[in-house]
Amino acid sequence: MDQPADSNASDSEDGAIRRRLPPAERRQQIVDVAVRFFAEVGLDGKTRELAKRLGVTQSLLFNYFATKDDLIEAVYEKVYIGRLSPDWPERLSDRDVPLRDRLIAFYSEYSALIFEREWMRIFMFSGLAGASLNHRYLKHLGDVILRPILAETDALARGDTRPTMEDVWNLHGGIVYIGIRQHIYRMPAPEHPEDEIARAIAKYLQFFEIELEN
Amino acid sequence: MDQPADSNASDSEDGAIRRRLPPAERRQQIVDVAVRFFAEVGLDGKTRELAKRLGVTQSLLFNYFATKDDLIEAVYEKVYIGRLSPDWPERLSDRDVPLRDRLIAFYSEYSALIFEREWMRIFMFSGLAGASLNHRYLKHLGDVILRPILAETDALARGDTRPTMEDVWNLHGGIVYIGIRQHIYRMPAPEHPEDEIARAIAKYLQFFEIELEN
DNA sequence: AATTCTGTTGATCAATTGATCTTTTAATCC
DNA sequence: GGATTAAAAGATCAATTGATCAACAGAATT
Questions:
Q1: Do A199 and B170 touch (CB under 8 A)?
Q2: Of chain A's two ends, which shows fewer C-beta atoms within 10 Å, N or C?
């Protein structure tokens, strides 16, 4: 029932037994499972249940993380790290490409990253808990993504109403809310989020009378 | 320090001592404080800390609620009940008033209700916990508010792109996201949310080429 | 094959937590 | 003013929880 009698216990790609992993690998495995676990049940999830999911003793966790908070910190980092690739500021500012295309390119890629249950929920849990990483992330997002979007919009806006930072937050929020509905509230998702993203962007650009070719 | 020696301990409007309240009043007081408490620390907040805030013994809570879950259920109800006044469907459908005015009226009133820390956070906590009240609320919102908005928009839209339910969710999400930023992520809020709401609505209507007077 | 090394287990601790129950005491009734 | 009622306190239970530590066992080394 448990596992075929494989004399060598430490292989079997994603099997169950494999005891005695090298530390780096075990640590990574713990963090991977912890991300899914805490994303599902919240940061108050119990170490014993996490250990059960890992097929491992609860005490083993404390060989790799001094405290539960340390483990959660590792979960944060695993989830937050690399979520915003560093070349987006310049790609968003590349005026050889129409702004609409830049925005669609960004939000298509970005939404593929964040419309993901683990990210979305851990981001929300950590936000509610007031985690500093959350604040830093949002500040970074504002500085590095939304502010350039505002600058580009402002450069192209033709109407008499100038775009503001709040306009960009509104665009952003409307898009992110798709993921919130799906993963936080577990409501049915739109079939083609890309289409909704494109529409949101069109709405945004049209408001400032920015033509498609600019 | 604690309280002037008021021989009758049970008055003093919002003072500290007043022991021995009538049950209905005590129950209400517990729920009121519990709403603020759980909104702040999450639904895993401990009964002992809640009791301390009430200036009451922990065991007293269980004289009014059989279990902690019962208390949380009471918190849900207190927070959810009456959040959507029942006359909005017709007010949103009153074509004697320009759609823009109807939308602004609704979202001004609605945002005043939901841009509130307790509501926003408990809604999010309960959403993450998968509470059924949360699902019911969102379904209700969709049926009773967003669907009429869609119908009204569709009746007035002049362009060749027809509005969809996702467009309405996008409008809604963009507005709600203001509150999420403020109360979940604790970011600085826009000074005049009403202005941002009006702008979001303008964006929405303009996309479907709906004039201000319609 | 024996030895060493270390990843992992199992037992256990102390603090915490939801919940129960007896006792106390403030308010009401006669 | 003393008796009665029930709201609240206080003590306590059993289960849970994060964390510790000695003992075990799988793999590498010699």
A1: yes
A2: N
